[in-house]
Design a protein that fits this description.
The complex is a heterotrimer.
Chain A lengths: L1 H9 L1 H27 L5 H13 L2 H30 L15 H4 L1 H20 L19 H10 L1 H28 L7 H28 L6
Helix pairs in contact in A: 1-2, 2-4, 2-8, 2-9, 6-8, 7-9, 8-9
Chain B lengths: L16 H8 L5 H4 L3 E5 L3 H13 L2 E5 L17 E2 L11 H11 L6 H21 L24 E2 L5 H18 L3 E4 L2 E9 L2 E9 L5 E5 L2 E4 L20 H8 L4 E2 L4 E7 L22 E5 L16 E2 L1 H5 L9 H16 L8 E4 L1 H7 L1 H19 L8 E10 L2 E2 L12 E3 L17 H21 L12 H20 L3 E2 H16 L5 H21 E2 L9 H25 L23 H4 L1 E8 L2 E8 L14
Parallel strand pairs in B: 1-2, 1-9, 2-5, 9-17, 18-19
Antiparallel strand pairs in B: 3-4, 6-7, 7-8, 10-16, 10-20, 11-15, 12-13, 12-14, 14-15, 20-21
Chain C lengths: L2 E7 L8 E7 L8 H15 L21 E2 L2 E2 L21 E5 L8 E3 L2 E2 L2 H8 L21 H11 L6 H5 L6 H12 L8 H14 L10 H5 L7 H19 L1
Parallel strand pairs in C: 1-5
Antiparallel strand pairs in C: 1-2, 3-4, 3-5, 6-7
Chain lengths: ~230, ~625, ~250
């Protein structure tokens, strides 16, 4: 098993696999989280109950959180390591270089990824720990549960915050539009015939996620959701 | 035998000779093989296959190539295919038929025993290549596909799209790579052989120049194998790679190896014509195009109208007119000469008037454009890439170009030259194709020599040479190194007013005019004088800038062209001597009343092997004896 | 036609390189890119300057020796075309043409535009072969191979080994080259016995040679003169994972 560990952690392809698999875990979370969030459109009762259920899971919740955190950290550490190696692989840059295929999404993976990281940090401080907005901590609904519904709407009523979220989601989805098909390529599912399908499917998934997540701040800004 | 040329053909019936010879050949004990060092120059099909196979047998091999990797040798450019007497198609093929076709195609100027052996091992070659993973074309049933090729009535050609040479070479390269990794072969890329070293009359090593650092080095071996390809670039323009050169074989010739049949060169009829003086190379288009294209030239001299405006009755479909039964499928030498005739007559088309049309209009009408596109799409694309003309709309322009050289260093049945220890493989030797090579036979010969012949025959020499390898600091090596360096210094110090290429172009044009598709006494004599003059000017007026101790491409070229300038003379001399027309060698004085090649078996059924001692060429003749085939005049009317 | 050339000049692997400007006047539009450089070099030699060194050999698009990054693209602007098959008619009269060597740590410059691609040879030596001793091969038709598999293997085998994939890759990755090699041999039944060792060893050597990592930009496929598909990279990724797992459990 040590050889397996070394094959995956030291080789180029092995680390690609690590990035792909941790990426998949994160994509799965992103989709799950989106479905959970969208329950806000079903009313205060539903979303607050959902939040309450999650919080009542205790150790399981922490296990999932730990797993996601690990995937997140590994995903980032390995890609940064790979990017550093990639830079070293071309010590003398081209004076003129024209890209023929690489798009904005693939070229900006590391940047979009790092901005998403900062977004995630803010997002945790904002809605999870309420560090940025301690007043959210005390919001309670009629049943004495934490009033997530009110918190989200208050949060997004600040247009600056809403737009920051929308921008963050845009970058996340740009990241995913390349990332998802990249995952399929890396695990070896791609072929000449599947390539266009995977490519289109990946973009579709990304924009679907974008639409899902931005629906909430957009609805708040458009006063479709209010307290 | 004659003049000390012992071809060492084994006795017995033709079909038993090779088996008998293998049995009679001396073996080297596996444990002793590692004591022998073998120097191989060239890493194409012949050299690469020999290096891989000898390395695998346990010999210590050093292999040299001028390219940056053995994978780039010019064998890679062969398109069409490789022949083998497998009879997978059940269409009546056999070893004897392949042998016969090759002897006849060579216009009866090759050795029966060698050609038979080639046909015999051809089947093993296919097996070997398949086992190595060469992706030959296959039928839907999963079996190997075949196609037919010029000069044969059976389908015996195996192919890998239009890239057969590439795929075979990659197979060789893979096998070679394995031996390099195993430490049995030491590969020296970007290294050029500049001299052969003889110790006590035996070839015992070479002197090389590292083309990156300029370092001159000696490499000693128990035997030396040259697999350095042909000399087509003596014409400057040819379908050879730019780097192909005669230096290795010519240096060996100057050290005593006989050069055989240098005048036998093959001109391929379907190449893209020359467009200007700047042109550096000619591109071949597969002969298969003639299956559906019709060759024509305008009837009127100097007719400069675009082809579409020349009405049918003013076109001369000269191949169909002259050779009604073969028509556009007449053999390479014949269709090449017919194109030259039309152009010499002032009826050539395109820039410079050196071209004829290959017209697909009728075929497109008959079969539809999609069918033609499916058959020849890649060739039409290539033509478009180079000429920017659309051959679906306007006829292609084609012209013959130098393609292959049948002549080469003289070798016996063991592939050893008259210099003991010096073995010569592939296109670099003269042995198998006579005066004309059939399509899809060059790949076959290269691999036969490398995979199957030399591993079996080299023992005959090595067994006599135990412990005789000189150290690389032997006086003969030192002397050869000094000579090589002195020559380089001389080239660099001339500092004249003309570039190497300008001399090469001048020589090439002269050779093409006087010693190309058609030759005559007066022209050859004139060429002999002119070559001397060009050479004299070269040595006082060439400009090769830079130094030896660096990557210096001008210097590399200068050394090669200097050798071509001597070698061209030998070609003309041989062409002058051969007062007959056979295969690729057409002497205008020797033709039938209707302009066909007239062979003279009475007086010229010999291999002409040239020795060069003290600068004067001396001819030796090895008579060709035909016991199994009947000498017949070729007719394609 | 007339062109202005901006060419990378570097005397040897250790020296500093720089760009030099040259005029290329009166170039026939039917000249190939390398013939244009030949013409410029003739002029340089006669002026007593050192000619521009560049790799080339067959000049018919198959040997893979020619390289060059032309206006930012390996082998220039035409699709599926090597530098030697690129013709000047595809450029604008008066245009400035930037010519650089293939740049990658694994492809050090030897001189001017000539680079050392021996890393590819070493990758091949690590496992890019099927062991078949001369004389030991069974009959060529002994094992039928389905046409689609044979054709796909041929698609992969068409790689000319020029290194444009590395030159084009933003990361200087050699995955397309190695993917093509691994796939060609791995797709054929003859290649099965060594399939797992092959992919592990070739990838290991590739990594040690200092190539970058693939991040799926597919620039390699876009410039490949032999139009090798990135699907072969996917195939190699899969083989690599299977081989790694098998190696540790079998």
């Amino acid at each position: 098993m040590t050889s397996l560990y070394s094959r995956f952690c030291n080789s180029s392809i092995g680390r690609k696999w690590i990035v792909a698999l941790t990426g998949l875990a994160l994509i799965a979370y992103v989709i799950g989280h989106m479905i959970g969030n969208l329950q806000i459109f079903m009313g205060r009762e539903r979303i607050n109950a959902y939040a309450e259920t999650l919080h009542s899971m205790g150790p399981l919740l922490w296990a999932v959180r730990a797993f996601l955190l690990a995937a997140f950290v590994v995903h980032i550490v390995v890609t940064i390591q790979l990017t550093a190696e990639n830079r070293r692989a071309r010590p003398e840059r081209y004076s003129v270089k024209e890209e023929r295929r690489a798009g904005a999404a693939s070229k900006s993976m590391i940047i979009s990824g790092l901005i998403v990281l900062s977004f995630v940090v803010y997002h945790l401080l904002h809605f999870t720990t309420n560090t940025t907005n301690p007043e959210f901590k005390v919001l309670e609904d009629a049943k004495g549960r934490h009033d997530v519904y009110a918190m989200v709407i208050h949060g997004f009523q600040n247009p600056l915050v809403a737009w920051f979220y929308i921008t963050g989601m845009f970058l996340l989805c740009l990241h995913l539009s390349h990332g998802f098909q990249s995952f399929l390529q890396t695990i070896g599912a791609n072929s000449k015939k599947t390539a266009p399908v995977f490519d289109a499917g990946s973009r579709l998934l990304a924009w679907f996620i974008f639409a899902g997540y931005t629906a909430i701040p957009a609805a708040v800004l458009l006063h479709l959701l209010h307290t | 035998m004659n003049n000390g040329l012992d071809s060492k053909i084994p006795g017995g019936p033709l079909e038993k000779k090779w088996s008998k010879h293998k049995f009679d050949s001396k073996l080297i004990n596996p444990a002793n093989r590692r004591k022998y060092e073998i120097v191989i120059v060239g890493s194409g099909l012949a050299g690469g296959a020999a290096a891989a196979t000898l390395g695998e047998l346990g010999y210590r091999v050093k292999c040299f190539c001028y390219q940056d990797s053995p994978r780039r040798a010019h064998s890679i450019a062969a398109q069409g295919g490789i022949n083998a007497a497998k009879n997978y198609q059940n269409d009546g093929d056999s070893v004897f038929r392949l042998f016969y076709d090759t002897i006849k195609g060579g216009d009866f100027r090759s050795r029966e025993a060698n050609v038979y052996r080639l046909a015999e091992v051809s089947a093993n070659i296919i097996d070997q290549c398949v086992a190595q993973g060469v992706p030959f074309a296959r039928e839907y049933g999963g079996l190997l596909a075949n196609r037919s090729f010029g000069g044969a009535q059976v389908s015996r050609t195996f192919y890998a799209r239009g890239q057969t040479g590439q795929q075979l070479l990659l197979g060789v390269y893979a096998a070679l790579s394995k031996q390099i990794a195993a430490g049995n072969v030491r590969m020296h890329p970007r290294t050029e052989m500049l001299d052969l070293v003889l110790v006590d009359g035996h070839a015992k090593g070479i002197v090389t120049r590292d083309m990156v650092t300029g370092e001159i080095a000696s490499h000693a071996g128990d035997a030396v194998l040259l697999a350095t390809g042909g000399y087509g670039n003596v014409f400057y323009l040819s379908t050879n790679a730019k780097g192909c050169n005669v230096t290795a074989t010519y240096r060996a010739h100057k050290k005593g190896a006989y050069f055989a049949n240098p005048c036998f060169t093959q001109i391929h009829p379907t190449c893209i014509p020359v467009t200007g003086e700047y042109q550096s190379k000619l591109t071949l288009m597969s002969e298969s195009l003639r299956n559906d294209g019709r060759v024509w030239a305008p009837k009127a001299k100097g007719d400069k109208r675009p082809p579409a405006q020349i009405p049918e009755e003013e076109r001369d479909y000269y191949l169909e007119r002259k050779y009604p039964s073969f028509g556009n499928l007449a053999p390479r030498d014949i269709s090449s000469r017919a194109a030259k005739e039309a152009c010499d007559d002032g009826r050539g088309v395109g820039p410079g008037g050196l071209g004829v049309y290959l017209d697909f209009a009728d075929a497109i009408k008959r079969l539809s454009e999609p069918v033609i596109r499916e058959r020849y799409g890649n060739l039409f694309d290539m033509y478009h890439k180079i000429t920017s003309e659309d051959a679906y709309k306007t006829p292609m322009r084609i012209y013959p170009a130098v393609h292959y050289t049948m002549g080469g260093l003289w070798v016996d049945y063991n592939l050893m030259s008259n210099v003991p220890g010096l073995h010569v493989l592939g296109e670099a030797n003269f042995s198998d194709h006579g005066a004309n090579r059939l399509g899809a036979s060059a790949l076959m010969q290269g691999l036969a020599d490398g995979y199957f012949v030399i591993p079996a025959t080299i023992g005959n020499y090595l067994a006599t040479q135990t412990g005789k390898r000189p150290p690389p600091d032997h006086a003969e090596f030192k002397k050869a190194e000094e000579d090589v360096l002195a020559r380089i210094k001389k080239l660099l110090n001339i500092n004249g007013k003309r570039t190497v290429d300008s001399f090469h172009r001048e020589l090439g044009l002269l050779m093409w005019d006087k010693c190309g598709m058609a030759r005559n006494d007066a022209g050859l004599k004139e060429a002999l004088n002119r070559i001397k003059e060009i050479r004299e000017e070269f040595w006082v007026n060439v400009k090769a800038p830079g130094a030896n101790e660096e990557l210096n491409q001008a210097l590399e070229k200068a050394g090669r062209v200097a050798d071509f300038l001597e070698f061209g003379e030998l070609m003309c001399l041989d062409a002058l001597d051969r007062k007959e027309s056979c295969g690729g060698h057409f002497r205008e004085e020797h033709q039938t009343p209707d302009g066909e090649a007239l062979r003279d078996d009475e007086n010229f059924a010999y291999v002409s092997a040239w020795e060069r001692t003290d600068g004067t060429p001396v001819q030796h003749k090895e008579p060709l004896v035909f016991e199994n085939v009947h000498l017949a005049q070729r007719s394609y009317k | 036609m007339n062109f202005k050339l901006r060419v990378w000049r570097q005397e040897n692997p250790k020296s500093e390189g720089r760009f030099a400007n040259y005029e290329a006047p009166d170039i026939p539009s039917d000249a190939s890119f390398l013939e244009m450089l030949d013409i410029v070099n003739e002029g340089l030699i006669l002026k007593g300057d050192s000619p521009i060194a560049f790799d080339h050999d067959c000049r018919e698009g198959i040997c893979g020796m020619c390289s060059l990054v032309i206006n930012g693209t390996p082998h220039g602007p035409e699709k599926a075309t090597t530098t030697c098959q690129l013709y000047m008619r595809h450029f604008r009269d008066g245009q400035t043409i930037h010519i650089e060597p293939f740049r990658a740590k694994a492809f050090p410059v030897i001189r001017d535009l000539v680079v050392n691609r021996a890393a590819f040879d070493r990758i091949q030596q690590a496992g890019g072969f099927i062991t078949a001793r001369a004389g030991s091969a069974p009959d060529g038709n002994a094992v039928p191979i389905a046409k689609p598999a044979a054709d796909l293997a041929m698609d992969a085998a068409a790689c000319i080994g020029c290194g444009a994939c590395v030159a084009a890759c933003p990361n200087s990755s050699a995955m397309l080259f190695v993917g093509a090699k691994v796939s060609h041999l791995g797709l054929l039944p003859q290649g099965q016995p060594e399939r797992m060792r092959r992919v592990l060893n070739m990838v290991k050597t590739m990594d040690n040679e200092g190539f970058g990592n693939c991040t799926n930009h597919y620039e390699c496929e876009a410039v490949c003169p032999a139009e090798i598909s990135v699907a072969f990279i996917a195939r190699m990724n899969r083989d690599y994972a299977i081989a790694s797992v098998r190696e540790s459990v079998e």
